[in-house]
Design brief:
This protein is mainly beta. It has a single domain, classed as Thrombin, subunit H. Helix content is about 15%, strand content about 45%. The protein has a six-stranded antiparallel barrel with strand order 2-3-4-7-6-5. A hairpin with a 5-residue loop joins strand 2 and strand 3. The radius of gyration is 17 Å and the shape is globular.
Length: about 110
């Protein structure tokens, strides 16, 4: 499965996993390989050109049906390889902290 677990929590895959990137509005979709991933970012190898695409924000689709996905932004392009950063959902951190606080109050 995973070839290497780096000190920064990034897992590198030797053969990669087939994934897709898709525009936020759904007007474009491209095949690529997921070659490394961490909780905050990933590295992809593209199979086709991304020239002319708006990569400010897009989805990384982990399943062909699109049921498993992450919202991303482009960090760096190096030929056919791109580095991306996962975007967090606004308010997600607040929900986690408030639920933790509720559990602590219930135990008190």
């Amino acid at each position: 499965m995973a070839d290497e677990l780096a000190g920064n929590g990034r897992v590198t895959f030797g053969r990669g996993y087939n994934v897709w990137i898709m525009g936020i509005d759904g007007t474009w979709r491209r095949n690529c390989l997921l070659t490394a991933v961490s909780a905050h970012d990933a590295e992809l190898t593209l199979e086709t050109s991304i020239e002319g695409l708006n990569l400010k924000e897009f989805f990384l689709l982990l399943s062909s049906t699109g049921l498993a996905y992450r919202r991303c932004e482009l960090v760096k392009v190096n030929g056919a390889q791109i580095d991306i950063r996962f975007l967090s959902i606004k308010g997600a951190a607040k929900k986690k902290s408030s639920s933790r606080g509720d559990a602590e109050m219930a135990n008190a």
